Amino acid sequence: MRAPIGDFDHARPAAECLDLLTEPVAAAVRAWQGGVPADRILYVDTDPAIADTAVFVEHHGRELLDQSANCVILAGRRGETTTLAACVVRSATRIDVNGAVRRQLGARKVRFADMDTALGLTGMEYGGVTPVGLPDGWPVLVDATVVDTEWVLVGSGRRRGKLILPGKAFAELPGAVVVEGLGVA
What we know:
By secondary structure, this protein is an alpha+beta fold.
């Protein structure tokens, strides 16, 4: 099947290629429930050498910048309590860390989570973090424009490969909170 976005010749339902995903992502795809059927979560094979957004869109087309999302792990701190959360914004925007994220987490300070901590706790690879398959109980803050996008390309948990799913599926992820203005230009 041809991918609904991008120049990918071959897309497959992610449930048919679980061995290409990290275990947490594969488990989330296997257990998927909600209004978006699991077979609409697609996997496309990509070159891990071009996994970073800027290089990826230069290779596969600049229009993907508006059809892809980045997932970043942040740490919000209030007193002695630290809350880890995932933030999902369209790739053409940046995360409003000190405004929207701080308010949503009720934190005094928010920073990007230490890479070793984020990767260790998610079981994912650098350059492939995805909101699909995150640890139980983590807030997943999703910019409203991601949910409003017909199809969204996001990491697969590994540097090799990407997932493509309907934007409205992001609102169905465990712990998802749709936030207006999470992504800013």
